[in-house]
Amino acid sequence: MFTNRTPKIFLFLFLFGGFVALSFAQQNAQALFDNANEMLQEGNYQQAISSYQKLEDRNTVSGALFLNMGISYQRIDSLGMAKYYFLKASQFEETEQQAQKALQFVESRFSRQSAVLPKLPWDIATGWLQEHIGAENILLIGIITLNIGVFIFIAHWFLQAYPKVLRIGGLSLIVVALLIIASSFYTQYISERYSKAVMVTEKVSVLAEPAEEASIVSRAYEGYTFTVDHRKSDSRQEWTYVRMSNGLYGWIPNSEILIL
Amino acid sequence: MRKIGKSFYTVGFFLVFVLLGSPFSWAQSNVSVEASLSQTTIYTGERVSLSIEISGNFNNVSRPDLPQFENFRLLSNNPSTSRSYSYINGQSRVSYTYSYYLIAQKQGEFQLPSVSVSIDGETYATDPIRVNVIDSKESATSEDSSEQPDIFLKLEVSDKQPVTGQQIITDVILYFRDGLEVNSYQPVPGWKAEGFWKEELENSGRPRAESTVLNGVRYRKARLLQFSLFPTKSGELEISPYKIVVAVRSARSGNDPFSSFFSGFGSNQREVELSSDPITVDVQALSATDDATYLGAVGDFDISRSISTSNALVGESIEIETRVRGSGNIPLISKPNYDLPDGLEIYEPQENTRLDRRNSTISGSKSFTDVIIARSPGNYTIPSKTVSYYNPSRGQYITTTLEALTFSIDENPNVIAASENSGQFPVSPVTGLASWIVISPEPADLLGIWWFWAGLIIPLIIAGVAYWRKSYAEKMQTDTAFARSVKASDKAQQRLKKAIEVSEQGDIKQAYNLLQKAITGFISDRLNMPEAGLSNQDYIEALKEQDIEENLVKNVRMLLEKCATISYAPNTTHAYLKSHVGLAESTLEKLQKVL
Questions:
Q1: Cβ separation of B444 and A46 shorter than 8 Å?
Q2: Distance, CA of B9 to CA of A85 (rounded, Å)
Q3: C-alpha span between B322 and B335 (Å, rounded)
Q4: CB A206 within 8 A of CB A219
Q5: Angle in degrees, CA B303, B307, B310, rounded to 5
Q6: Is the Cβ pair A135, B446 closer than 8 Å?
Q7: Contact: B438, A65; criterion CB under 8 Å
Q8: Rounded to whole angstroms, how far apart are CA atoms A141 and B168?
Q9: DSSP A168-231
Q10: Which spans in B121-239 are helix H?
Q11: CA–CA distance from B263 to each of B1, B180, B257, B491 (Å)?
């Protein structure tokens, strides 16, 4: 019944099926995207946004999708939402430049601008690692470095030439590798605990406690960006604990912001 | 002429009828007939006055047609009458009052039937009156009337077990005995009803005293003030005592229940501060409901929503008015939150509350006006919204669905011109092919990655093995005893192999010599003994010190003795040597395990 060729046939069918499914999903996404683009060009911004939203809900995304969503919201003067999607588009290489231009334009249209405290160097470094390399890639680099360091260190036991160099070099690489691995975990921890969020409604009070009757820390307006503390926010279902860009902390209702 | 004259009279009569008939009909509609009783709580055998007051603008009125009064005896069919005439704002008004006297004959609660009166050919009927007749004998013996106060103040609430937010009417009632005359009263400011939101109700006219009997004592009672209280929380809440200062005068003569509550000042007048007892109200908590729909309203309401226009231009304001009408806790009602589509700007809502404090209840309306401005053209729909309030009389939440509101927004030419001048958006949409990625909703956990663990464990294992190997090599170089011990087995094997080779060449004695060196060399290497200068007995002793099995030691001794004595054996063969080599191999193998 089964011959030697049977496993090969199954493997071929599996790979072919997967390829066809992936292609179909991408074509489907592209078709939806094209329809939405037509609506956008015809001025049916609401319908265009609904179509783009379907793609986002399916977790099939692209820089172009987020850029066009931002443009749609900008056209209907929903600048907070526009900023949110331009920020998302700026995370994609192919749309980064356009998104940055759009962000500059949108920022200039907000009626209120918030003061921004400069970031600490360590925060900048962590942000850069998170944005440009990613925790998983940093971990991979650390593991490779660790292995190289261990092999070099072992080599000094058996090789007669340059034993001191091999020993110090190996140990140094191991120490560096452990630091890289630790930074990957720290980057992962930071990315899981903190997120950037954009305020998409007109105005809201940032409160000292997660209760409507709590004292007001500050007022926040459309387009303000916050740093969300997920660990602290997890204790409250409808509230989010945020750090404002001027360094103040407080609670804000979930419905007022979108988390990147 | 005849015809014309007839027509003229007809038209003239018609005009006169219209001109006179209209005010006449209006006047007819303003006629009121009311019956009242001087006291509604009386003793058996006591006389009570029944008054029928007819007022309005009319021409002819008949004497009241009295019904049969069961349990009451009519003293006389001939009433005493009074008549008054007033002319106010060009309107004349006549008032007739017919007074009859009845005597209560039987104890109980009764209803005096309505009395009919014919006015200008039409028949009017009064409302029935409830009367409570008390047995004069029983009441006289029921309690010592001297212990009852002459005058006191009491709070009376309409409901002692309301729900949170329900309107309860609280009357401030003054009781005073016959013979006392109250000239004026003044509330003491500062009355608080903690846990309640309170509103004073408006009552037209001056308080009127009514006769009543409390614990066998006849009092007159008058409602001075009336409040609407709305409990703001559940639990037992206390309405604190209400205080007033009244000016009273004793020695009031006569029994005129229809006289004014306030009389003129006399010489016996004095001021008394009265305080009511506190009242405890058990406020029930509202049953759980959907907070998203509940407006906090408790009462009977009509909720509606309307939009100012269904078509506007970009930038023009549109008003959405939500109106709540009815009776209940109107000022405490909160605005429903609407889900507005994107592209609409909403401004602070305006609230407008109108309260009506008449008719012994708080009623009125509250309206919320949301001002929205669309920033782009298109058709917008504000979805339907479900709202609810609690109706205490029905004991349930009433849910109302506000219909969806649809409106269209057109481009505003002025706004387009302005935006074109104010700078162009610098980015165009991407309309071609896009590169798609599927993102995973959950970020990867670093500790769950297999190569992370492999990358940690594999170098550790390799490092461990390499360290062991390095230590072994070092020991072999530096520790002679260890090196001899490790190499002992291989060395012995080589000597045994050599012994067989030598034996095959015919040199049996040399072969046995090698066999002996193999055994003694193995023992001395393993036990780190000198390589030369030792007798066979020394090796045997050394083995015994190691606590080796006796048979094994015996084999070693036998082999060593055989090797020593073989020179004297004339016919020793190669096969014989091989058997000894085989025994030596197995013996050394066993020795390797124990040494």
A1: no
A2: 89
A3: 8
A4: yes
A5: 145
A6: yes
A7: no
A8: 75
A9: HHHHHHHHHHHHHHHHHHHHHHHHHHEEEEEE-SSEEEEESSSSTTSPEEEEEETT-EEEEEHH
A10: 136-142
A11: 70, 11, 12, 143
Distance of CA A168 to the CA centre of its chain: 39
Cβ-in-10-Å burial (0-12, 13-18, 19+) of B456 comes to: middle
Read off the tokens for B246: 């009244």
End-to-end CA distance of chain A: give it in Å, rounded.
55
Query: What is d(CA B430, CA A36) in angstroms, rounded to the nearest whole number?
Result: 11
pLDDT in tens, B573-591: 888 888 888 989 999 988 8
* Helical residues (DSSP H) of chain A, grouped into ranges: 6-42, 45-57, 63-75, 79-89, 96-109, 121-132, 135-158, 163-193, 230-233
d(CA A105, CA A52): 22
Contact criterion met (CB < 8 Å) for B378 and A29: no
Please check whether residue B437 touches A, CB under 8 A. yes
Give the Cα separation of A171 and A181 in Å (integer): 15
CB A222 within 8 A of CB A199: yes
Per-residue pLDDT of chain A (260 residues; tens, 9 = 90+): 445 566 666 666 666 655 555 555 555 888 889 999 998 888 888 889 989 998 888 888 999 999 999 999 988 888 899 999 999 999 888 899 999 999 989 888 887 777 777 777 888 888 888 888 888 899 999 999 999 999 999 998 888 888 889 999 999 999 999 999 999 999 888 888 888 999 998 889 999 999 888 899 988 998 999 999 999 988 888 899 999 888 889 999 998 999 98
Report yes or no: B474 at the A interface, CB cutoff 8 Å.
no
Structure tokens, B377: 């053209």
Q: Which has the closest alpha carbon to B129: B38, B259, B200, B206?
A: B38
Show the tokens assigned to A232: 């602290």
Chain A residues with CB inside 8 Å of B427's CB? Answer: 67, 71, 98-99, 101-102, 105
B342 and A147 within 8 Å at the Cβ level: the answer is: no
Q: Cα–chain-centroid distance for residue A234?
A: 19
**Nearest-by-Cβ selection for A46 from B343, B439, B440:** B343
Interface mutation vs chain B, best among A58, A78, A192, most B CBs within 10 Å: A78
Element spanning B584, H or E: helix B574-594
Cβ <8 Å between A46 and B378:
yes
Q: What is the pTM of this model?
A: 0.45
- Give the integer Cα–Cα distance in Å for B400 and B381: 19
Do you know the residue count of chain B?
Answer: 595
Which of B378, B433, B434 is closest, CB to CB, to A45? B378
What would the two tokens of residue B108 be?
Answer: 């109980």
Burial class for B578, CB neighbours closer than 10 Å (0-12, 13-18, 19+):
middle
